Structure formats: structure tokens, C-alpha cells
Amino acid sequence: MMMTRMVLYFVVDDLRPDLNVSYGQIISTPNIDALSSRGVVFEKAYAQFAVCAPSRNSFMTGRRPDRTQVYNFLDNFRQVGPEWVTLPQYFKQHNFITLGGGKTFHPDLPPNYDEPMSWSQIEPYFTFIDDVCNATISPIFPYNFSENDDICTVANESSLYDYRLASKAIEWIHKYQEYNLFLAIGFRRPHL
Q: Per the database record, which ranges form the Sulfatase N-terminal domain (predicted)?
């Protein structure tokens, strides 16, 4: 049987340093603690920029925002570095299946999703708000805030964006377990 390798690369917005795995026991995070005990924890990781899209593009390209020229959600690093090899693209060039879901580069607007250079196949970017909030606006906040997705009640956990993304990631891990796999998952929450 051939030895396969899997790289699970996931990103979460705005995790504070209050996690047990980092600096203390202010926040109870048993699942993150369990995962970190089997992986690598970067304790000196810093944001390149105070907005998620420039930071995400920075670590996916290995270049600072002043080089990528990504300062918002509309800029695309390929405009200044069309030949740059991204992290998933590197794995793809070395015979890995590369899959990405969620906020990896920050895919709200194409072509920031960087398809097809980085990914072996293109998966849909899950709708994260309209299908959840429009029908379930909280009576405490009777206005539809779905454009900024800050206030919303949810009928059930399985309709949440990150839940659906995690379920898809598990599906991919099982489906591609006999292949070299680079799987990048970008969770949305907590987005403080």
C-alpha cells in the first residue's frame, strides 16, 4: 500500500490568545485543545494587516500586503504577481489533490478564489447568511441584518456555515484518504 500524506490547513478569524492551547484557561475550548495536541501550534503568529483578506492572501502567497497589493476584498494578488506560486498551488504541483473551502484567500468576489491555479477542483463557496437568517430573524432584533450578518437566530446547527464547511471537509478527508491531500478550510467564526 502506498504511503499517503494529508495536510489539513485551516484558518479561523479572530481567535484571541485566551484559548487554553495558547496562554491560559479563560475560554474552554476542548475541541481546539484536542486538535492542537496532535498538530502544530504557532504561538508567535501575527496578522499582516487588520483586515482578513489581505492577511489571508499574505499567508497563502508568502508575501506581505505591500507586495501583494491586496488591501481589501476586491484586490487580486495575481494582478501584480501572476507567476507567484500559492501554498495550495505548490502542493498541487507536487502531486497532491488540493481542495479549499470557505475563506481561504477570501473568496467573496472572484477571482480572489484563485481558481483553477491553486485548486484541483472547484467547490462552491457556501452561502453563509441568506439561507439561514432571512427566515429566522430574532424577535429581539426585528430588522433584517443579513447584509452584515451580525445578528441572527438559527433554526438548527446544521444550517450554520462553519458546520456545513466542517461536514464537507470530513467528507473530503474520507473521499480522498488514499491520495496525497492538501485541504485548506477557512472558517468564518468567530469574526469579531
A: 6-191
Residue 154 lies in a domain: yes
Grid coordinates representing 139? 424577535
Whether the model pTM is above 0.90 = no
Q: How many CB atoms lie within 10 A of CB 178?
A: 9
**Does residue 18 fall inside a structural domain?**
yes
Q: Tens digit of pLDDT for each residue in 37-63? A: 888 777 777 777 888 888 888 889 999
HEC letters along 88-132:
HHHHHHCCCEEEEEECCCCCCCCCCCCCCCCCCCCCCCCCCCHHH
Kindly list the catalytic residues.
52, 106
In order of 33, 129, 142, the CA distances from 134 in angstroms are: 34, 8, 11
Number of compact structural domains in the chain: 1
What is the extent of the structural domain holding 151?
Answer: 6-41+86-187
Which run of H or of E encompasses 52? helix 52-61
